Amino acid sequence: MLQAMGARSIDDLFSPIPAEYRLERDLKVPRQMAESEIVDWFRERSRENGDSYATFLGAGAYYHYRPVIIDSLISRGEFLTAYTPYQAEISQGTLQAIFEFQTMICELTGMEVANASMYDGSTAAAEAVMMAVRLTGRRSVIIARSVHPEYREVLATYAHHQNLPLSTTAFKDNGRLNLEDLEKSITADTACVLIQSPNFFGTIEDAAAIAEIVHKNGAMLVVSIAEAVSLGIVEPPRQADVIAMEAQSFGVPLGFGGPYCGVIATREKFVRQMPGRLAGQTTDRNGKRGFVLTLATREQHIRREKATSNICTNQALVALMVNIFITIYGKVGLKELAKQNLAKTAYAAAQFGKHAKVLFPGSPRFNEFVVQTSENPYAINSRILGHKIVGGLPLKKFYPELGNAALWCCTELTTRSAIDTVVGLAAESERSVRSAKEEVEVAQ
Amino acid sequence: MPFPTDYKYTKEHEWIKADGNNATVGITSYAQESLGDIVFVDLPKPGIEITSGKTFGSVESVKAVSDLYAPVSGTVTEVNGELATAPEKINKDAHSAWMIKITLKDPAQLNSLLSAADYGKFVAEEGGK
Amino acid sequence: MTRKATRHVNQNEGLIFEKSSSGKAAWKLPPLDVPEVDTAALLGTAERKDLGNMPEVSEIEIIRHFTRLSTWNYAIDLGMYPLGSCTMKYNPRVNELVVRLEGLANGHPYQPERISQGALRIIKTLSECLIEITGMDAITLQPAAGAHGELTGLLMVRAYHESKGDPRKKILIPDSAHGTNPATAAMVGYAVENLKSNAQGMVDVAALASQMKEDVAALMLTNPNTLGVFEQEIHKIAEIMHAKGGLLYMDGANMNALVGKVRPGDFGVDVMHLNLHKTFSTPHGGGGPGSGPVAVKRKLESFLPTPVPITKPDGTLGFDYDRPQSVGRVRAFYGNFGMFVRALAYILANGPDGLRQTTEDAVLNANYIRKGLEDVYDLPYATPSMHEVVFSDKLQAKKGVKTMDIAKRLIDYGFHPYTTAFPLIVPGALMIEPTESEPKEELDLFVEAMKSIAEEVEEDPQMVLDAPHSTRVSRLDETAAARKPILRWKPGS
Q1: A134 touches chain B (CB under 8 A)
Q2: Of the four, A79, A383, B5, C225, which is 20 to 30 A from A335 by CA?
Q3: Are residues A156 and A266 in the same domain?
Q4: Do C331 and A304 touch (CB under 8 A)?
Q5: Is the distance from CB of C428 to CB of C393 less than 8 angstroms?
Q6: Are C334 and C123 in contact (CB under 8 A)?
């Protein structure tokens, strides 16, 4: 090949690189491994990563069963190794799948149009807020404090350089947004109010009541949904102007935090301000139905600095997993799946409630709840870990005012025996704290 | 291609037809041809003030967006609602598919714009490249 | 002439909703081991009554539906993608196996550090490898894709300047840059100033010297640039930026020309992003997911997104959240961990020699194609190409045939088109990047196909203008799709 090109050696081809920069040594990376060694190396890492532990963690990443055919299908080379469908004639598989995905998200969320995925729920929420700012022309944003703390951090990062003041609204003892607080803080300069439902604590917000306040002030309601499975049994916030979802629960592995699948869904009239790719239906020269990426003029590769966002890559393969998962469960299965989540959680909450305090009573919840214990939840979790179970997420670093509280999640995969074990350990913990107190009192 | 002689033109390919203190604005047939099939037009609402030389909206084809530049300063009085549902009217007849009607802030600004003949020359030079 | 592709019967398939009917099911849940609940009692008005038009189909129908759809796609597994700046290299299958190992696939991001040492070790090892490869000092793996990495990088640029008392106002961007660059600058509150390229398609150093002022925060550069050409005056470019306190940002999209041969940190780059889905073999999956780590020099380290991986005094690994100067978070959790696993597996499968050879082969392959086609297609710049080559359609345009038409005809020859109409500085561009994965046989087929199309342009241009002829659908009406968007299926349609 070199001969054909008239070059003497590979080095000739690298001559454009000034000699002073050319690397004359090997890169200091691990030596080359054979395939079997690579597999062994990662197996070790897997063992060091709590494989075969049961979990009660949720908080924006949910452990649901992934039907086998999801991986069978997405592993097909024609899906796995395909490029972005810019050349529509040879990407109809990807494009039709995206079109179906968009349709099903609309059906599930009650919105009119949905995009072909964003990076994740947190960035989808940030982008949805930016959308509302552009659409209303207003410059401040209100966020419920019961929105996922890391989502709020992401929004703060995005907003900081756009000079967008952010303020938070508190939650009440029943876990829901404080509507009086909201009434007081909303102004004529509020572009939007961002809430999450079910919120970070698992509580379902009263979206209709919130929407009324928001809309009468001329602002937009943006609702973040982190636990997508809730849509099987919980009425979606149809009064929202924009919904920013995390679809990870629908067949995407926990994978230590990513890749996940954000989606933005909204009303048709806002579509030109919506970021992210969109697949549209059209016809070819023979009148045959086909699909193309459309409304590309919103996007970075055309508008450059005037783009609605800088997003380029989306999460296509992960969105395909979501698509297949929703198709498998379908109209009936999604409801049954959600009901099982509800049942497991109701049982767990009731059992915990016999020994410790379950916070935010009095409002409907989906598959998460908060338990307040006398002992530090980290200590309790330590003991639980000994049973190869991961306990609920201690909340002190996010909500110090809740004291020794932890966020517990139950899905269809949570077993009764695991629930009984952790409740038993929590009960033990309460008993020993009580008897320690009694001893102290007796001693005094 | 003939450009209406009672219109004035800009180098950004807008046309303006003045009538006393009012005027109508659109883009030229040359512009629509370069853009290709127009799919969307983004125009200001009535009441908005536009400033000579500054952008007042944009026109989109499938693969490109072009800013619209105000030929003169003024206030928008009317917007062509037909373009919202039928932007292809611009491709069909750009010189009658008006975009906005305005009241003029300073009619003298019209004098610095190109005549049909000058615009025709300008376009011929550009197109020859 | 050997043909790479031939017509083949493929299956038709409607929308999934068109196959749906009540009563079909593809799921089964185990029986509840806890009491049933009364949904209405638990949820009250929050209860959903109707799941609308969600489909109901059987498992075999789902398998057939998606399998048939998949056969309508082109993919790397079928043949070369000559897409410039996309680096469509082979996606190793061992990556897919290791990412599915239970502890990694089912690890929850909030599980205790005690049982996360595996994931943390992967993050640490990958970070160290990428720092070594780029010649930088520190790195974040948090950004989800290249554009996200650009955003993160520019946020850090801004934070750096703010810490010095003045955020500055502008970012300089060459006119050859990818569209994400100016879009990102605007998102971070900077104005964009265009930097013209010189006659060789490279940064005009004199122009840069005059445009670089104390209100310019950074220059965003791609090197090699989007013409596939290495910026030979990079030393001067870096000097000009640094002399007035500015930073040099590098878009790492074209790292496939540099790995193991030269390191951006060594030629003056202060901050750069990488695309794991380009250079490091993670699969494109029809458009994502990607991953866009950002590597920085020491002076920007304190601004990295939170949290930062650390080694604790007892030798175990963890995350540090105490980062007062950090730009904050750019996403929840830690980044696209699944792509870290794949990228690291790729690095381990190559080792130092493999990585160097990969780069050499990538450059070799691109130049082989350049040589094969330089008599047939116009080469707008004589400068040597690295891992990609840019032609123009100037010769073919005389017959009324443009780059998009040639690209569509290439489909009939069994290839995916190259990148058309980019970079913007070359009118009618054909941007070709074969990557190191392509065997000589595939390259020869590509060169033959392109030569054959050039002949067709001379003898039968209509054949090219009406292409593709062999696909399931012919050219699609994108105008109608944009004028009257139909973005979802509706019942009764």
Answers
A1: no
A2: A79
A3: yes
A4: no
A5: yes
A6: yes
Among B38, C466, C412, C404, smallest CA distance to A286 is for C466
In a domain, residue B129? The reply is: no
In chain A, residues 128-147 whose CB comes closer than 8 Å to chain C: none
Are A149 and A88 in the same domain?
A: yes
CATH number for A220:
3.40.640.10
Note the pLDDT tens digit of each residue in C241-271: 999 999 999 999 999 999 999 999 999 999 9
- Contact yes or no for A203/A174 (Cβ under 8 A): yes
Q: Which domain holds residue A246?
A: 69-326
Number of compact structural domains in chain A:
2
Question: How far is A146 from A206, CA to CA, in rounded Å?
Answer: 13
- Residues of B in Cβ contact (< 8 Å) with A303: 65
DSSP codes, A337-348: HHHHHHHHHHHH
Residue B121: inside a domain: no
Distance from CA of A290 to the nearest CA of B (A): 17
A157 close to C155: Cβ distance less than 8 angstroms: yes
Instruction: Supply C136's token pair.
Output: 């930088």
Q: Is C478 on the interface with B (CB under 8 A)?
A: yes
Q: pLDDT band at C179, cuts 50/70/90?
A: low
Residue B40's domain spans which residues?
8-106
From C482's Cα to the closest Cα of chain B, the distance in A is 6
For residue A306, the chain B residue with the least C-alpha distance is B65
Domain count, chain B: 1
Q: C95-347 architecture in CATH?
A: 3-Layer(aba) Sandwich (3.40)
Inform me whether the C-beta atom of residue B84 falls under 8 Å from chain A C-beta atoms: no
CATH number at residue B31: 2.40.50.100
The reply to whether omega before C468 is within 30° of 0 (cis) is: yes
d(CA C134, CA C151) in angstroms, rounded, equals 19
Picking from C68, C21, C66, the residue whose alpha carbon sits closest to that of residue A69 is: C66
B63 and A303 in contact by Cβ < 8 A? Answer: no
**Residues in chain A closer than 8 A to C229 (CB atoms):** 16
Among A137-141, A173-177, A380-384, C425-429, name the one with the lowest average pLDDT. C425-429
SS3 of residue A202 by DSSP: coil
Q: How far apart are CA C276 and CA C465, in angstroms?
A: 36
Q: Using a CB–CB cutoff of 8 Å, tell me whether A290 touches chain C.
A: yes
A 334-393 residues inside an 8 A Cβ radius of C: 334-337, 339-340, 342-344, 346-347, 364, 381, 385, 390, 393
Is position B115 within any domain?
A: no
Residue B62: inside a domain, yes or no?
yes
**A357 beta partners:** A372
pTM exceeds cut of 0.80: yes
pLDDT band of A297, cuts 50, 70, 90:
low
Test A80 with C91 for CB contact under 8 angstroms: yes
Contact A270, A220 (CB under 8 A): no
CATH number at residue A358: 3.90.1150.10
* Closest residue of chain A to C409, computed from CA coordinates: A89
For an interface test with A, the pick among B43, B62, B67, B85 (most A C-beta atoms closer than 10 Å) comes out as B62
ipTM of the complex: 0.95
Among A269, A297, A301, A304, the residue to mutate for chain B (most B Cβ within 10 A): A297
Asked if residue C201 lies in contact with residue C225, where contact means CB atoms within 8 angstroms, the answer is: yes
